[in-house]
Structure prediction request, 258 residues.
Amino acid sequence: MNPMPALEPALKQLRLSGILDSMEIRNKQAIENGLSHVEFLAMLIQDEVARREQKKFSLRVRRAGFRSEKTLESFDFSYNPSVNKALILDLATCRFLEEKAPVLIVGPCGTGKSHTAQALGHAAARNGYEVLFTPIGKLLGMLQAAKATNTYDRKLSTLAKTDLLIIDDFGLKPFKSSENEDFHDLIAERYERCATVITSNLDFAEWGEAFNNKLLGAATLDRIRHGAYKVILEGRSYRSSREEAALKNLVAGAEENT
Prediction:
């Protein structure tokens, strides 16, 4: 007697319908290898756990708002040998999240700051952490919009509790008066409670220039720098290398057609 017609609706009722995806394969393996009923059941349950974890990971990545699929596996460390690979790989273990420590990533345009930050975000998502990646302009815009709708406290609380907040392009434009306060409030709420990654084209000594309120800026930066890991990316621009490669391909194609 084939139990599948009765089994399928029962599994769906129990929200275990994912088991159906591997049922046939696992059943065949169990027969071929002479597995016990318990061993067969264990394989099905492990498949279901893996499926659910993958689904949760995909949801965390989607909510994180990454610009693209940037991971450490796709980062070319050999392009700029001066990059501290050991430090970046250590950060990818997510120990800094347990420490509630900031990570500050600086370097010229095109040296991989956003890629590194998003790669750390992917690593955090794989380890079960909730992540949000946002350019600083968009972040400040969200807080300003929340003020306009009287939801500032709620938005600030949500951002403050996110396991890992990645703020991209700090210091790209000077803060406006209200933005000084908003950014300070957010950093103060997250200080020693949650980890924050910040990228910037500015050298660390220049970060104070982003604030027009120097007193508030000093207090904010004091919290950002306390116990922070500092990643300095130097060398050639990855964007330039892509442009050079595209130009070479264009020239090679033109020569072939002549």
Observations:
- The radius of gyration is 24 Å.
- The first helix runs from residue 4 to 13.
- The chain has two domains: 4-11+18-64, 72-240.
- The longest strand covers residues 164-170.
